[in-house]
Amino acid sequence: MELVRHNYREDPTVLLYEAAISGCVTTLNTLIQKDRLILNKVSLTSLTETPLHISALLGHLDFTIAILEKCPKMVFEQDSLLRLPLHLASAEGHTQIIKALLLQDKTACLARDEDGRIPLHLAAMRGRVEVIQELVRASSESTFEALDGDTVFHLCIKYNHLEAFKLLVTFINGDEILNIGNQDGNSILHLAAMLKQLE
Length: 199
Hints:
The chain is mostly helical. The protein has helices at about 10-20, 25-35, 50-60, 60-70, 85-90, 95-105, 120-125, 130-140, 150-160, 160-170, 190-195.
């Protein structure tokens, strides 16, 4: 009995994911010409990340825009850790991709991953100042979403990202933010003093 060997190099799904990794819009368009439903069929595969997750993670703006034009619902797809493409782009600091994703859905700013993090938490933990600016403009209420009792203000101090903290303060009226406590009862000023980051 002869085994039939599957040629993965010709599998459209494999080619789609390779195009996402390389950011090749030409390959994406060719695959869509051959099968107009290829992007819709992604949810039928065993793969947990969509091509949009990969493109957002790697910073391929043109590819991201092309996918959003052809399959805008992909912006809502979660990976196995409940992350949206916006979570990945936020963590990596891909500001232009974040702008494109937010044009499709601003409510994604409040979506929590498996660890309870929203995109703004990831940006604050990494000190992604431009990303923070875009996310807060899209959803100012996200600044008060807590992660294990810590607001993004606490996270900026905890992870030593003072420029990100300073930017966040400009979005808030008044000094009340300095007195908001985390789950341990520590205000931002207490946390900064404990971590010797007071400026």
